[in-house]
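A protein record pairs a chain with a discrete description of its three-dimensional fold. The following entry can be read in just this way:
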Amino acid sequence: MLHCQELNARVTEVRCDPDIPSRPQPDVNVHAIAMPQSDIHVTNCTEGEYLDWYKCSPCQEGTFRTKQIAALDRYSWCQSCQEPGTYEIIVEPCTKSRDAKIMCEDGFYRLEVPEMPCKSECVRCDICGVGRNMFKNFEARECGGYNNTACCEHEDMVVKDEQCVTITTSTREKTTITTTTTSSVTDNMEGFQAGFVGQSAIHRISNCLWIICLVTFVLCT
């Protein structure tokens, strides 16, 4: 009995398509072609083709067959291309070797449907300062992909683990220390340069006085 339960669990297990998480991974065994069992050589068809008895034929319009599907089952048929749903748009069209790439329209994000593996739908993005975000007027994260708009109460807040948090004091202190240290180094350099210029001026004046004294001595002699 336990073995049957484990077997059923494996059968009902759903894996999402790695290229398009919003749909289940194509089951290559569902559309497998029944081929006669014999010792005859079977051709391995590449992506964009399927095995039509003993020869490879290109996928028909509106279907595709990826390299991964071809590697999993040589007898698999071409899969139907994905069609856009509500508030969805086709970003990249379907070809014979890959499915269409579909994303949500602007102003929408993809939300996973509870208890439905690989199922998601496009939902309208929240607007800060409106509705449930009436007292959250600052946008801390833009809406897009699988993320809704993140609205916070204050402008200096950031989103961490889907929660609005204020920038920590330690971060500000580090910034202040860095600024102060940089300013101190700059002030010291300016003081050193000013002292160096002053010493050079005194040295030049001393040389001039020495030359004047030497000339006066020669003339008097």
Q: What stands out?
A: The first strand starts at residue 49 and ends at 52. The CA atoms of residues 110 and 122 lie 5 Å apart.
